[in-house]
Design goal:
The chain has 12 helices and 13 strands. The chain has 274 residues and is an alpha/beta fold. It starts with a strand and ends with a strand.
């Protein structure tokens, strides 16, 4: 039997684990003096109350590695194979820490998704297609699809990218004054700005057209992501070609571990290019 463990940077919710046939490995989130398990015991309304009203910026840290080691040990001793899919090693230390724990254990495969949120969901879907294959064969499939996955998003405000250390002070000040909206994307495992547009509407138009430009593969679903409020996402969907709207299967209100960097009212698409 194959056990698939996925860290909470995937934004897969507790109520979705049965659908995806996975178990979650929650990252830790520190809000002020209180530590939470991402997606487990931090209600979304409390997270946004702290983020927006109290201006408390969360700190994220590694999952409970001791608990993870014990859980995986119980599975392998029962004869199961285990895949652990982590958020990109470029933005979290989870992959390197977990990889070190299971080094040399041929029944455990730790895979760096080079992604987050919906990109990890698409990788999980790919793994589930090949559950009866060997761990090495599954890893090879994952490595082939990762370069094709596109995560594109627009933050409504630059404040949270700046506070999270993903935007320079100069770009933050300039962008805020000129109403510039950066289009952010995962490239080689890192969050990067691929272009900038003046105003929200121009940013939406760019993203709606990106599905055609990057040749969105109709054989995979499109994941529509947002934070806090879906209004901006709904406007983007209205601007999107009908044939792509039909591919949208998931509307993902992002978990706190990622939402704290995007900020409230951010939105975007995750899809597979050809």
């Amino acid at each position: 039997m194959l056990r698939l463990l996925v860290d909470s940077g995937s934004s897969i919710k507790q109520e979705e684990v049965e659908h995806y046939n996975i178990e979650l490995v929650p990252l830790k989130i520190l809000l002020g003096e209180v530590e939470y398990s991402d997606g487990i015991d931090l209600p979304m309304d409390e997270f946004y109350r702290q983020l927006i009203e109290n201006k408390v910026f969360p700190k994220t840290s590694l999952p409970n590695l001791g608990d993870l080691e014990e859980r995986v040990k119980s599975y392998t001793e029962a004869g199961d194979d285990v895949i652990i899919l982590t958020i990109s090693s470029e933005i979290s230390g989870s992959y390197n820490a977990i990889k070190l724990i299971f080094e040399g254990n041929d029944k455990v495969k730790v895979i760096d998704s080079r992604m987050a949120v919906g990109g990890m969901r698409l990788i999980v879907d790919e793994i589930n297609k090949y559950r009866d294959h060997t761990l090495d064969e599954i890893e090879d499939r994952v490595k082939k699809i990762i370069p094709r996955i596109k995560i594109m998003a627009i933050p409504e405000t630059l404040e949270y990218l700046f506070r999270g250390g993903r935007l320079s002070r100069k770009d933050w000040i300039l962008g805020s004054i000129l109403k510039i909206k950066p289009i952010i994307c995962f490239i080689e495992g890192k969050v990067k700005v691929i272009t900038k547009k003046i105003g929200l509407k121009m940013g939406m138009l760019f993203m709606a057209n990106a599905l055609k430009e990057y040749e969105c593969d109709e054989n995979y679903e499109i994941i529509a992501s947002y934070t806090y409020d879906r209004s901006n996402l709904d406007k983007l969907i209205e601007m999107t070609d009908e044939k792509y709207r039909k591919q949208i299967r998931v509307y993902d209100n992002l978990d706190p571990a990622i939402a704290c960097h995007w900020g409230p009212n951010a939105f975007g698409y995750v899809f597979v290019g050809k």
